[in-house]
């Protein structure tokens, strides 16, 4: 059996049920047809680049639910695609199929999740215009496909359903906080590797009932935080709706540690400021003019305290800055800014920016902030590294000479509160202006052009390996890079999946004759993201032994009565590309197959047939 949760690109989406002998299966979604019509559950104006519901230039959420009938059989596969900032969703439900009995049996026995990324000039069955001319693609161009796609934020949980077997919580990715400040709800919690459970407290609760402060959407499952324009939020140990106390805030000591996260700044143009920083809120006994005990080095709410800006940034500029409590300007690094003077110039606009050679800010990228200590336990520097999957180069800055290191060392040891914010101004040239040298990015700022929200995700904190001089030796360690994973027979790595625990990834391509094949799968264990490169196929497993295939290693996942959820970034997967996530009965297949890895599906790709459920292709 095979269940295709997805076979997809930026223009088309197919979700399909297959019994072991049914090559075509029965599916839903949008796109395809060459002399016939593929599924038309939504339109190209709703799903596609700049789509009204799903803009495939940006990551979006996928939920695949498998409700059961009262007799325990598969009732349907229900697919919902949604995206932060868009009120509408696109959906398909495959609830009538002659093969439900076989697929029910396959699900109960447990199926193996598979991801793949491939291309062809003959993909019109999936993305063609069809006989009605309503499909998306007139021709396919495999050579134009991006090198890789990204899956992240995986989870599995029980499905709430009524007595008829229909799902009542098909989509539940976010604790939506569109009016979180106004109705005094706590936005939610995320899990942070190395810290555990973290609550988010928004600014904006006031005593006079005139609450202010924009929304922060908290996606507990994927671990992402989405501050909308005007939002500010604080990492906390606990949140009580409507109540502010400095004792609720986190006091995080990052001295000798690294904090890592990913950020998506798409749409944050000149005049926008997405910030992530540390302030001494836990130690501040004054509610301040804002009423929430906020303090910083610029007296924004009337109270000063130490501040460490890991990032103040948009798609064109980046600043990382150290401030003592009385130093408004601080000392920083990065790129951009200046109006009659020059801001930092640690890299260039060709390296960082939209379509940048090292960091393409149209897409998510990784941030590591390291705080190595001297042998006497003082802060030696703040070391920032930005990196991005698919780009070999990084951009870096290190702030290692500052008169305020003693004060900041004391603040870190006492514990500082992480803060995120997103704001805009027509007067942001201090951060993103051209400067007197003309080498900065922005000639003018336009606050009205800023995107409604930005996204932070994949947070982690860990101890920093450093030499005796206090310099960091593991400043960047986001990915277990598997560029030659098949060739040198390394296991790509593991990710944590909410509801499943630790999941190993096994790549195709290990062969007995030494002529190993199969493209790389980059596994980012900290952020929980999987990045299959073109030509890759990989399997969810309980264990991985480098160079060894066994059907007993693969996961046997029973999704009957459950929901699987994840996010996907298909940017660059054009007509002729196919990013797939699906389920097959590999664990039950005793035959190594022509591929040697026990792979099977409903189309005999490796010479062995089995049930298949395509969540997406």
Describe it:
It is a single chain. The chain is mainly beta and 617 residues long. It is 5% helix and 32% strand. The chain has four helices and 35 strands. The strands form eight sheets. Strands 1, 2, 3, 9, 28, 29, 32, 34 and 35 form a nine-stranded mixed β-sheet that branches. An eight-stranded antiparallel β-sheet has the order 11-12-15-26-17-18-19-20, with no helix packed on it. A hairpin with a 7-residue loop joins β19 and β20. It is elongated, with a radius of gyration of 25 Å. About 5% of the residues have low confidence.
Morphology: elongated
- Low-pLDDT parts are 168-182, 473-487
Largest beta sheet, briefly?
Answer: 9 strands, mixed
Nearest-integer average pLDDT: 89
Total E-strand runs: 35
In helices, the fraction of residues equals under 10%
Specify the structural class.
mainly beta
């Amino acid at each position: 059996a095979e269940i295709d949760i997805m076979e997809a690109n930026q223009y088309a989406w197919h979700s399909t049920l297959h019994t072991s002998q049914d090559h075509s299966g029965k599916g839903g979604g949008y796109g395809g047809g060459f002399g016939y019509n593929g599924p038309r559950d939504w339109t190209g104006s709703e799903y596609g680049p700049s789509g009204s519901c799903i803009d495939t230039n940006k990551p979006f959420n996928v939920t695949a639910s498998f409700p059961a009938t009262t007799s325990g059989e598969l009732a349907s596969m229900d697919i919902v695609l949604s995206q932060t900032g868009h009120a509408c969703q696109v959906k398909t439900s495959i609830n009538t199929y002659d093969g439900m009995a076989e697929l029910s049996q396959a699900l109960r026995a447990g199926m193996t999740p598979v991801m793949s990324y491939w291309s062809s000039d003959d993909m019109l069955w999936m993305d063609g215009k069809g006989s009605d001319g309503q499909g998306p693609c007139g021709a396919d161009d495999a050579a134009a496909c991006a090198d890789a796609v990204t899956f992240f934020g995986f989870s599995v949980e029980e499905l709430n359903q009524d007595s008829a077997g229909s799902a009542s919580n098909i989509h539940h990715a976010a604790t939506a906080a569109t009016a979180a400040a106004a109705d005094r709800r706590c936005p939610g919690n995320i899990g942070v590797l190395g810290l555990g459970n973290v609550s988010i407290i928004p600014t904006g609760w006031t005593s006079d009932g005139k609450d202010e402060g924009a929304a922060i959407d908290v996606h507990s499952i994927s671990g992402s935080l989405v501050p909308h324009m005007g939002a500010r939020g604080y990492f906390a140990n606990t949140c009580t709706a409507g109540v502010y106390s400095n004792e609720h805030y986190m006091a995080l000591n990052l001295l000798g540690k690294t904090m890592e996260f990913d950020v998506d700044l798409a749409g944050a143009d000149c005049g926008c400021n997405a910030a992530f920083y540390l302030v001494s809120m836990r130690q501040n006994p004054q509610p301040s003019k804002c009423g929430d005990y906020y303090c910083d080095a610029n007296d924004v709410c009337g109270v000063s305290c130490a501040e460490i800006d890991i990032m103040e940034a948009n798609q064109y500029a980046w600043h990382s800055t150290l401030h003592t409590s009385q130093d408004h300007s601080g000392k920083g690094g990065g790129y951009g800014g200046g109006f009659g003077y020059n801001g930092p110039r640690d890299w260039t606009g060709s390296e960082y920016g939209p379509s940048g050679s090292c960091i393409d800010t149209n897409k998510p990228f990784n941030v590591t902030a390291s705080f190595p200590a001297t042998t006497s336990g003082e802060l030696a520097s703040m070391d920032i590294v930005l990196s991005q999957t698919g780009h070999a180069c990084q951009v870096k800055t290190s702030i290692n000479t500052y008169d305020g290191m003693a004060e900041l060392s004391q603040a870190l040891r006492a514990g500082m509160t992480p803060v995120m914010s997103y704001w805009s101004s027509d007067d942001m040239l201090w951060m993103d202006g051209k400067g007197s040298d003309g080498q900065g990015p922005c000639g003018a700022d336009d606050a009205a052009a800023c995107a409604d929200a930005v996204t932070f995700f994949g947070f982690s904190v860990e101890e920093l390996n450093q030499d005796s001089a206090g310099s960091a030796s593991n400043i960047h360690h986001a990915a277990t890079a598997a560029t030659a994973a098949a060739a040198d027979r390394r296991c790509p790595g593991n990710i944590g999946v909410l509801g499943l625990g630790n999941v190993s990834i096994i790549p195709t391509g290990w062969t007995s004759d030494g002529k190993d094949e199969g493209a790389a799968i980059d596994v980012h264990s900290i952020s929980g993201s999987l990045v299959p490169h073109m030509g890759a196929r990989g399997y969810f497993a309980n264990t991985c032994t480098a160079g060894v295939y066994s059907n007993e290693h693969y996961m046997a996942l029973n999704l009957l009565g459950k929901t699987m959820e994840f996010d996907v970034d298909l940017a660059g997967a054009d007509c002729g590309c196919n990013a797939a996530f699906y389920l097959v009965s590999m664990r039950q297949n005793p035959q190594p197959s022509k591929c040697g890895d026990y792979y099977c599906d409903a189309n005999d790709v490796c010479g062995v047939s089995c049930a298949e459920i395509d969540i997406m292709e």
